[in-house]
Write a structure and sequence with these properties.
12 strands, five-stranded mixed sheet, 15 helices, Rossmann fold, single chain, binds nicotinamide-adenine-dinucleotide, seven-stranded mixed sheet, 2 domains, alpha/beta, 417 residues
């Protein structure tokens, strides 16, 4: 299923969106190709005194709208093409959210579970040394991704600041609050998912109050989405994790389910559930809103025929396969695409960067309000493009709108020399 080369998929998506725009071949090629890719080999001393070499990448895809922005992942399957594709998708995510940043992504080919903390620190600092000439608060701002978090971000920031003899917390986002991180970052992804869903309900003239909701995946994105939609008056009737799902006709208390998962490691066997469900059963429940918040490709073509939800808000990245997307489109399921629905993380990263630059920190309330406003504005921009241009889906609308924004920025700048 995931044998498809991600970079080729990205190029295809851009071609599809570009077919709705008046744009030359040369411009499209420019928007399908990264501006530069660093490929480096890190020689690092292990705890036993031996040397190991790690291949690492940083792709700066497009900076027409602002400094490159995107995470750094540590995974054995990192590849040059994967990093290029992920950096391209960041361009379209930042442009869909209308935040003044470009797209970048980086990674090291490594299984971090096989290394000690001291080794991981030396590996991260070796990568940070290579990255230092190309990153910076106005150049390229990395963030956490798969298998990296606040710890790695703090090491990168410290290495950069030491080499550059400066203090520049905005060189990286996803930091701990004590090192310049933002309030509201932990809840941001789940929050954007439900704010976008709330607006979609408004568009369809449906009430969130009393609506039924199923959430696949009960990690950071999924459980926060369940909590926030429940606070808006909706009934979360089904949730799941990798151990399976649970159903309650009268709705769950998401916080109690989270506490149970924290104690037992899973949502299965939750005492107040009416019955257990498989993940496929959860995805095909007759609910008003479905929130896939686990893995990519969770909904394939076959499952798409059985989907009964009216609205899907994609908390996960790529939870619907392209063929499944076509089926859902034909069956009038309103899908809010990941590049808007889960953009809360990168939007609050942008707020973190703004606060770092101003050296003035916002309350959680202000962060949440600004995030809400950003999602509301951009959701209705997509609806406008979807209706006015008669586009097939909100996903295509998101690509068309964001591509146009990147094109406009590039055109204003012109080419040089
Ligand atoms: P997480 O690791 O905290 O949670 C993932 C959850 O999915 C866990 O509850 C896990 O048990 C469950 N899961 C795994 N396999 C499953 C399966 N086969 N069926 C059902 N559930 C399964 O991860 P997260 O941070 O919540 O991220 C979830 C998704 O959201 C990913 O696609 C991620 O890329 C995307 N996302 C997250 C953020 C963020 O800020 N956390 C931002 C953007 C996108």
């Amino acid at each position: 299923m995931s044998e498809v080369n991600p970079y080729q998929s990205l190029r295809k998506q851009i071609d599809e969106a570009a077919s709705y725009l008046d744009v030359s071949e040369g411009q499209i090629e420019r928007l399908k190709t990264p501006e530069r890719v660093l490929e480096t080999n890190l020689s690092v001393e292990m705890d036993d005194g031996t040397i190991e070499v790690f291949r690492a990448y940083r792709s700066q895809f497009n900076g027409d709208r602002g400094p490159y922005k995107g995470g750094i992942r540590y995974h054995p399957q990192v590849s040059r093409d994967e990093v290029k594709a992920l950096s391209g998708w960041m361009v379209y995510k930042t442009a869909t959210s209308a935040i003044p940043l470009g797209g970048g992504k980086g990674g090291i080919i490594i299984d971090p579970s096989e290394y000690s903390e001291a080794e991981l620190e030396r590996i991260t600092r070796a990568f940070a040394k290579e990255l230092t000439p190309m990153i910076g608060v106005d150049r390229d701002v990395p963030a956490p991704d798969v298998n990296t978090g606040q710890r790695e971000m703090n090491w990168i920031k410290d290495t950069y600041e030491t080499i550059e003899n400066t203090t520049e917390p905005g060189v990286i986002t996803g930091k701990d609050i004590s090192s310049g991180g933002s309030e509201g970052r932990v809840e941001a992804t789940g929050r954007s998912t439900v704010v976008a869903a709330r607006e979609a309900f408004d568009y369809l003239d449906k009430d969130v109050d009393g609506a039924t909701v199923a959430v696949q995946g009960y990690g950071n994105a999924g459980w926060i989405a369940a909590k926030l939609i429940s606070e808006m008056g909706a009934n979360v009737v089904a949730v799941s994790d990798s151990s399976g799902g649970i159903y309650a006709e009268d709705a769950f208390d998401p916080v109690a389910v989270k506490d149970f998962k924290r104690e037992t490691g899973s949502v299965s066997d939750y005492p107040d559930a009416d019955r257990e469900l498989t993940n496929d059963e959860l995805l095909t429940l007759d609910v008003d809103l479905l929130i896939p918040a686990a893995l990519e490709n969770a909904i394939d073509e076959q499952l798409a025929h059985e989907i009964s939800a009216d609205v899907i808000s994609e908390a996960a990245n790529g939870p619907i396969t392209p063929n499944a997307d076509d089926v859902l489109r034909d069956e009038d399921v309103l899908v809010i695409p990941d590049i808007l629905a889960n953009a809360g993380g990168v939007i609050v990263s942008y707020f973190e960067w703004v606060q770092n630059r101003q050296r003035f920190y916002w309350s959680e309330e202000r962060v949440n309000e600004e995030l809400d406003e950003t999602i509301v504005n951009q959701f209705w921009n997509l609806i406008e493009a979807y209706e006015d241009r008669d586009l097939p889906s909100l996903r295509i609308a998101a690509y068309v709108v964001s591509l146009q924004r990147v094109l406009d920025a590039g055109e204003q700048a012109g080419t040089w020399p």
